[in-house]
Write a structure and sequence with these properties.
This protein is α+β, with helices and mostly antiparallel strands. The chain contains ten helices and 15 strands.
Amino acid sequence: KEIDFQKATKYKSYHIPSRANPDLTTLQYYFWRENFTRAPTKNNTYPVFPSNEPYEFKFDLIENKTVKKQMETKPILSYLFFEGDRIIIDEMSPKEKFGKFMNNETKLRSQSMGKSLVSYVLGHAICEGYIESVDSKISDWNLVKDTLYENHSLIDILNMASGDQKYVYDSAALVNGKMDYNYRGSGSDIDPISVQQNLDFIFKNKKPSKKIYNYNVMNTNLIHNYILFKTGDNFQKILDKTFKEKARIKNPVYFYKKSALKDAGNADSMFYATRYDYLRIAKAIMDDYQKQNCVGKYLKEIYDRRIPKKYDMSGKGKRGEPQFNRTYSYGGQFHLDYPGLEDKIVFGMGGYGGKAILIDVEDSRIVILHSQHFNEKEFKYNVKKLLIDPIKKG
């Protein structure tokens, strides 16, 4: 009632285009649209309900002028910095920007950070015995028969190295003078479509090319739905193990479902959680790595088996990545080896619009930043000061 969304710019794409410079009303409209217009139900989500004993954070808060200034001038929704065993910086967008729409119980959209969370679920599925290892082939899954992915091992799919670059990619590129975000030579969007539909439409009777890094959501959808296939009626148990028991979430979290039957591959990587539950999950990842338990060994293996991106690190080329997840390597659906953090083991998640989670698994530092929009000009927050320096210097 307070904001006239009729005045907001409505773009043809579902999200604000990365190069756009929208006004505040448009930013607010897209935040509202992404977080509140699709009500989660038992029919359209795979939910996980709160732990009986949610993890409670300790606080030792300081005021950081740089963070506050960035919150005032950039479309940042939430910023958390965790070090040791407590939260050090805790900021939310001012009321006049996004604060009027959100509080600590608001579910925030993951965008592509959900890719990394799917990988974390896979680690639990392996450790619970549903899948043998990251070297397991997915050829026992009937959906991939006679497709490009039929004989692939999970590790190649985890590393976005399926040899599918002739047919699909997520990073923006110029195709015939226009920006194309998904299929090479096609404007189709693979994300809302079931795995079966995508496989039949694009990848049937196709052969893989050289296995190089090619970031795209099709690989994540394959992993997520292979877990769904292998766990069968126990898929919910794996989700509960990951988020309810391990991360000890305080509020419900959920992955969305695609508009398809389970057997067609309807598990979506789009994830929603509160700002503190994202931190609980990130801390669980850090704890697993440090404890050297089964999931920790999985995390170490995907780190050790990471591959080089070989992308344009300047960000100026047509296949570059945005600065907040521009790293030298990729492993197990995590961004790894950040410039400026070469001597650290940092597991990174990145999502459209500037969403980022960095986890320093050795020095126990975590940064979680949710942003509504990010580009390389007016809407570029200070990546060095908000993401890199806190992990590097504490």
